[in-house]
Amino acid sequence: MQFKTPLRYPGGKGKFADFVKEIFEANNLSGDYxxxxxxxxxxxxxxxxxxxxxxxxxxxxxxxxxNFWKSVTVNTESFLQLLNDTTISMEEWYKQKYxxxxxxxxxxxxxxxxxxxxxxxxxxxxxxxxxIGGKNQNGNYKLDARYHKENLSKxxxxxxxxxxxxxxxxxxxxxxxxxxxxxxxxxxLMYLDPPYYVKGQGLYRxxxxxxxxxxIREALDNVKSKWIVSYDNCDPIxxxxxxxxxxxxxxxxxxxxxxxxxxxxxxxxSIVPVEMPKKHKQSEFDFS
Length: 288
What we know:
This protein is α/β, with parallel strands linked by helices. It has 2 domains: about 10-60 and about 170-288, Vaccinia Virus protein VP39 (Rossmann fold, 3-Layer(aba) Sandwich), CATH 3.40.50; about 65-165. About 40% of the residues lie in helices and about 15% in strands. The protein contains 13 helices and 8 strands. Strand 1 (about 35), helix 2 (about 40-50) and strand 2 (about 55-60) form a beta-alpha-beta unit. Helix 3 (about 65-75) packs across helix 6 (about 110-120) and helix 5 (about 90-100) packs across helix 6. About 40% of the residues are buried.
């Protein structure tokens, strides 16, 4: 698999791109594609680069993630210069960690780059996690293990080539859902990948409690645009989305440690569902 996104994400859905392409084909979709919880936006970039959609909308309420996407689309050349010039060291890691924690003291570009630097040097790409190899750098892998400048530069250059077709938003998902029907043209698709219900607090800077998940489901009842939603497969989520068409599958995670995870995909009533292929039901997610 050729990676499109420069970011690593626990539970990243890059290998779902082919599945979402089948959704586009089965439903004759050709408009825009939107992710309210964009994160690494691996699926969005794959769809855009392969001309399945007209534009992609990247939304993330986390200001750190937003500043990253805003920087690589608006200030691509400056971001690439930072990538090229910045050394990969523990001294730099502490510096970038401080920048990440103090966005008001730094520019959008500086903060966006700090997000990228820590995403590439922290375990499983978790911004609130620890550095690869530990602070003493005595682990089997060092902090530069997932930080290959040449490869990452090429990914960012590619994004820059499509910048006019990438719309970046910094809205709460509920607020975005209230606007989505005006934002998206006909024949578009929205893919929601909310924070995990069970382990979200340990993985994301912005996580949900039960009522937040319920509010998202209620908001989707008022959305006319086509949507799909993926979640960790657990009883509370199945109860919240009771009545929706669904497909269950198994994924192998590597956040903290390798493990199998049960997940579930829900489809809105107006979607012609596509069954998850076996190769995706047992995919191993590599957070490169």
